[in-house]
Protein: Oligopeptidase B
Organism: Spongiactinospora gelatinilytica
Amino acid sequence: MTTDTPPVAKRVASERVHHGDAVVDEYAWLINKDDPDTVAYLEAENAYTEHVTAHLDQPSDTIFQEIKNRTQETDLSVPTRKRNWWYYSRTVEGKQYGIQCRVAADGETPPVMGEDGGPLPGEQVLLDGNELAGEADFFAVGTSVVSPDGTKLAFSTDFKGDERFTLRFKDLVTGETLPDAIPGISYGGTWSADGTTFFYTVVDDAWRPYRLYRHTVGGPADSDVLVYEENDERFWVGIGLTRSERYLMLNVGSKITSEVRILDAADPAGEFELVRPRKTGVEYGLDHAEDGFLVLHNDGAENFELATAPVDDPGVWTPLIAHREDTRLLDVDAFATHTVVHFRRDGLTGIRIMPRDGEPYEIEFPEPLYTAEPGGNPEFHTARLRLGYTSMVTPPSVYDYDLAARELILLKQRPVLGGFDPADYEQHREWATAEDGTRVPISIVTRRGTPRPAPMVLYGYGSYEMSVDPAFSVARLSLLDRGVIFAVAHIRGGGEMGRRWYEEGKLTRKKNTFSDFVACARHLKASGWAGDVIVRGGSAGGLLMGAAANLAPGEFAGVVAEVPFVDALNTILDPSLPLTVIEWDEWGDPLHNADVYAYMKSYSPYENVEPATYPPILAITSLNDTRVFYHEPAKWIARLRATASGGPFLLKTQMGAGHGGRSGRYDSWREEAFTLSWILDRLGVREVTGPEATVEPVG
């Protein structure tokens, strides 16, 4: 086999029989990562992709340099106050990973940051990702938590991308890393109030956090105490500390149901108290206010309502903000003198302030499309609210909101170098009409003056009630400045329009997600916005890409599917895999329900590849991904080659990364530059910047 021709995957008959339906899956063997033939096939695919995209090396390098040149490589975040310290992170030019730091606090306003983005005077480095990573191909931090008294740091690291971390502790007084080392933990973790004890979770074979342990710092890991074990395979376990530092919160939740237990944080060896027993379909969470709890829940309230509860009887809830059909309550943050509610209305996010003494009000923002959310606010007693703001034309910005003056104070906007001017770009909101008459919002950003119709990249996700809100991207400028329009289809299955929007795009209504997306693409063409359209999505959005390509292959000039969940039925049929039992609330249970099996089989991309002409497809995956296994896109590409015409169909596998791809920032920029150069090549866009960019027909 040479790199001039696409690899041909061997066919090994493997029969799947469920509910009387027998299916032969000739590429099922690719799930075996230890099979030498599997690795050989993935490497052959990589070689072929590298060969046929060799002409993209120069444009890819150009775009990488554009991303790099627009980024202030040496930079630091706005410091956040926690007791006697200001905490921040910074990056250094030429280094892949961030550095976590702090300086002693002196006053209520953050320390002045130099324009060069360098370290602040008196800086103490807590964690240097570059030193920890060394020469490793992959590196990630799973948790980094300073003890309430500021004397110790708990941190965890992953060097493979499989999201199993090793937990360690650092003495911030002496700078020593303590001998404690606990392998195989999950994300997160929480200190007790006195900083002597750390709580952490571990995962089972399906990568589900299911056990909570208590570790005494300085003691042996094999003496750690099992605090809680969740035996229901649909539920995950998490642990947190309230902002008041009064209570530990043991959160147990599935996709649709939750249960909370609380414990006095000053008594880490005590017993957690159940707030309310789980009730299928009811989600709730707590935060501690000065004289009780705030409870956000959906018991009889589809879009959630906010209630209060007494400390001595937290299961008794009294409504504070009643349910509204037009407003989805997302989160609540309790402070000593006020409460902050994060919400969603009309496809946009918002922030409501509820003073303890005074009338509630909402913060106003200037742009028609934007995303606003509370930021890092660890202090319980504060007169300011830290929040983040961005739009499709405004770089990420950090504000303090002065509660007394009711004034937004801009602390920092992410620098975009190279002469970037937000006035050169414009954002728009369009509405497509779905097959059933539902109006679907679309967010659009373009360089001002770009002639229409223009080549377009249309992005979509549409699962888990996750919203793809308007946001800025430095890398995206390389598309916009070449006359390409970027759009996001806010399709059902996401959460942009409230909980009902999600409910109408899951389980046996999942096909709404795919038909909504196709309707958005067709609307953008019919309304004069788009010429050729490249579509892009990742993970569950990769499922969307595969399903949309099956549904309307002639609509798209190309498809980018990143870590795509394209073999959905086979995965959800296998309860030993991570994306199975916990996912039945999202997709349905095809293993035990024949109707769900038939429905999933009718849309799962791998199951429905037709002998039709498909657009060019670029599938990108990672060998160590524990959420969407590499074999899904590998099987999909193999079946497309064997069944369909058109293409080409390309598979690129990162052989040392996880679900998020390569870990270093320069490495991730190079990967993004490659993807963007492939998109531009498929759209026929020449290497000309600015609105005068010319486009050649896709051949």
